[in-house]
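Issue 218. Parser rejects a valid record. Input:
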Amino acid sequence: MPNGDNKPIDFSDALRGARSRPSFEEPRQTEIHSPIEDSPKMVQWVVMYSGGLVKTGTQANYVLVSFSALAIIVSLYIFFGTVSEQSIIIRPAVI
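Output the parser choked on:
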């Protein structure tokens, strides 16, 4: 089959890299799967916004448990540690 220059077209190298039979295998996925992606959203949030201090999901769980324990202690202190007005006794000054 001649082209515009009246020279024959060479198809001898066209199928050099082709397979002889069709392949029905699924292409392999090469994505890197991070174990953090399987974690709950709060753990992902702690890892993302920790500034590099928390690197794994286990460390993020420790941070969340520590934070919740601290919040409970502070709230108990505020609830039970406040002094009511009735418990303060003001004595008049003795002259």
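Fixed in the parser; the record now loads. Helices lie at 41-49, 57-81.
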